[in-house]
Amino acid sequence: MGNPVLVEVMRGGRVESRHTGSVAVVDADGRAVLTFGDVELPCYPRSAVKALQALLLVESGAADRFGLGPQELALACASHTGEPDHVATAKRMLRQAGLDADALKCGAQWPRDQKAAQDLARSGGTAGAIHNNCSGKHAGFLCVACALEAERDSYILPDNPVQRLVRATMEQLTSATLSDDRRAVDGCSAPTWAMPLSALAKGFARFGTGVGLEPERAKAAARLREACATHPWYVAGTERFCTRVMSCFGAGIFIKTGAEGVYVAALPSAGLGIAVKCDDGAARAAEVMVAATLQQFIKADALVALARPTLRNWNDMEVGSLRPAGPLSG
Length: 330
Known about the structure:
Layout: E1 5-11, E2 14-27, E3 32-36, E4 42-43, H1 50-59, H2 62-65, H3 70-76, H4 84-96, H5 114-122, H6 135-148, H7 161-174, E5 183-185, E6 191-193, E7 195-196, H8 197-209, H9 215-230, H10 241-249, E8 254-258, E9 262-267, E10 272-278, H11 283-295, H12 301-307, E11 310-312, E12 318-324
Antiparallel strand pairs: 1-2, 1-12, 2-3, 2-10, 4-7, 5-6, 8-9, 9-10, 11-12
């Protein structure tokens, strides 16, 4: 059997489309609390693991050496929309390490934010790597490379000391073996490793609680969580799902999107990590999946709206909605 239908798209009172997926909720020891679908099938977490990748920025001493504050740390965990303050913060991170945007290897991308893209074009500017949604993560990698005196030009290659340490860090948190046959190239050209959804959820249970981590790593995780909770806009952008959730719940929920329908979350007070995957990669359906999963553990009006978003057309007419389905509908 395939994964269950977890989200339905409604229009005119009828189901217009359905999205299947899987959900894993586990504690820091990997014990399953709630699962739907095949949570052992490896998938690429993509940008969902940026906070785990950013641990090295703190652990290496680079964050303190280069005077990076909470906004910079939040941006290192971000898939941002390329708005002016996102760009300025990424530039500041690089400048503190004695670098500029030419050092970035993430590739040129127009800002995801429509106004920011339009303003950039009107000013005669063009897309650059600094506007890439991963520029904060890459600026963090470069700061680590400088702190470790590692080769900067190859910082995105799997054999570079930066990526070897990132890989080891993710293996330690998730307990997954990230073998070379599970390695691929992410959209920003950095390595990405496939892992079971259950392992991904375990990694964020540990990230959220510090359980199973060495003291310095637990402190680094707490520092990153605090930065993201205090500055959620830097983790995503204006009206983005991650920003909205963390703006409502502060330190109570850490949440991060990944490409192709992946989401992760950490519930520090409950000691739980969450990972969801929408099979067809639809971001809007993945948002409903993770919001409905969060509702299993947190009762709040803010999650009700996020789990059942309204669909509007170009005339701002309400034309439909999304809703949790199957095992998530209860």
